[in-house]
Amino acid sequence: MNISTKMAYQKISGHEPDPILQDWQLAQYVLDNFNYNLLGEDLAKKFVFEVTNYLIFPDEETTKKIVSRAESLAEEMGIVAEGHMADIERAGESD
Fold first, then answer.
1. In whole angstroms, what is the distance from residue 69 CA to residue 83 CA?
2. What does the alpha-carbon distance between residue 44 and residue 23 come to, in Å, rounded to a whole number?
3. FRET label pair with 20: which of 5, 7, 73, 81, CA 20 to 30 Å apart?
4. Integer CA distances (angstroms), 17 to 44, 60, 65, 79, in order
5. pLDDT tier for residue 48 given thresholds of 50, 70 and 90
6. Are the beta carbons of 66 and 88 closer than 8 angstroms?
7. What are the helix (H) ranges across the chain?
8. How far apart are alpha carbons 49 and 91 in whole angstroms?
9. Helix (H, G, I), strand (E, B) or coil at 80
10. Residue 21: which region, alpha, beta or left (left: phi > 0; alpha: psi -120 to 50)?
11. pLDDT tens digits for range 23-33
């Protein structure tokens, strides 16, 4: 399980993830209920970085849907001028 995704899920949901859930499902939940103030800047950035660079998705459609949402969040958080995975990767590595 990806650490930042799990931590973000725990903060948003208030409980441990069900062990049968896959990382992409946790990420989808976090994106559906995203709360920057609850996660804090550091975890929010790490979560977006992890989603755009390391999560494995079941198919191309799911990949596009979730990664594009994460890229949009990156743009809203000011990580990049326009959501782009290479810029998000650089921002995640600088933390």
1. 9
2. 16
3. 73
4. 18, 24, 21, 27
5. very high
6. no
7. 3-13, 23-32, 36-53, 60-76, 85-94
8. 8
9. coil
10. beta
11. 999 999 999 99
Distance CA 19, CA 22 (A): 8
Rounded Cα–Cα distance for residues 29 and 8 (Å): 10
Give the integer Cα–Cα distance in Å for 60 and 31: 18
**For the chain, how far is it from start to end, CA to CA, in angstroms?**
21
- Give the closest residue to 21 by CA, choosing from 34, 7, 32, 6: 6
Cα gap 28→34, rounded to integer Å: 10
Residue type, 27: A
| Tokens read off for 47 | 């979560």
61 three-state secondary structure: helix
User: How many angstroms separate the CA atoms of 85 and 53, rounded?
Assistant: 7
